[in-house]
Each structure stands twice: as C-alpha cells, then as structure tokens.
Design a protein that fits this description.
By secondary structure, the protein is α/β, with parallel strands linked by helices. It has a single domain, classed as Mannitol-specific EII, Chain A. It contains 5 helices and 5 strands, in the order βααββββααα. It has a 5-stranded mixed beta sheet. A hairpin with a 3-residue loop joins strand 4 and strand 5. Helix 1 packs antiparallel against helix 2 (37-49). It is globular, with a radius of gyration of 14 Å. The mean pLDDT is 89.
Length: 144
Amino acid sequence: MLDFKLTDIRLAAEAQSSEEAIAQAGALLVKNGYIDPQYASSMQDRERLSSTYLGSGIAIPHGLPGDRRLIHSTGIVVMQFPNGVLWDKDDTSRLVVGIAARGNEHLDILARLTEILQKSALVKRFTTTRDPQEIVEILTGNLA
C-alpha cells in the first residue's frame, strides 16, 4: 500500500471543468515531486482518449503509459470537489484521484476505490469529509 501524506490531499477544491480539475491534480502531483510537469499534460491527453470517470462521483485521471518516464516516483493525490465537476457530459465527479504510477504500486488503491464505490455511505463520507486524515483512513482501508 502506498503511503499518503496530508499534503497529497486537497479538500473543498473548485473547478469549472474536468480539464481544470485534472490540471489541479497534475499541479499537486508536480508540487509534491511525483511527476515532471509534462506528465500533467499527458493526463489531459489520456482523458481525451477515454474517460477516467469510475462512477459514484469518483474519477482517476492518469497519464498515458508511454509517458511513465516522466514520473519521478509513484504518487497519488486526492482532490475533493464538494460542488462537483462535470465529467464526460453526463457525470459529476466530486473526488478526483490523480495517479502517477511507475509500476503496479497503485493497484491496491484501485482495488480499494472499487470497494468504496460499492458502499454508498462510504462514498458520501469520502466526497464530503472536512478531515484529510479521514480520506487517508478510507483509502488505506482503516475506516470502513
């Protein structure tokens, strides 16, 4: 399981579009030293190919596989958008989990997100909490 730092989480963010939300997630990945700024552009390119919206208000933007060389170290950032961001014309994302993975280290998080999606009460907590530590606990499975 990846380690999370509270600096990897932004609560109460605002964005007018999925592109802006992805840009914010990419900027946080850059700021925290996980990626080269060019990888943030790759995240936008990947989204144009196919939506990264999972369902239940959660999206997982990430870059193209050929751009992994732009990743300094595997990292995940969580951006919470309580007012939602229109994603894919019909969907609204309230949580954007930006992923930069050099290998398969992120698969535990994807499995955990799949579990979360199946529990509507947990999704609601995940997308509305005001406590970044609660996000960490939900993602790591320490809060059911």
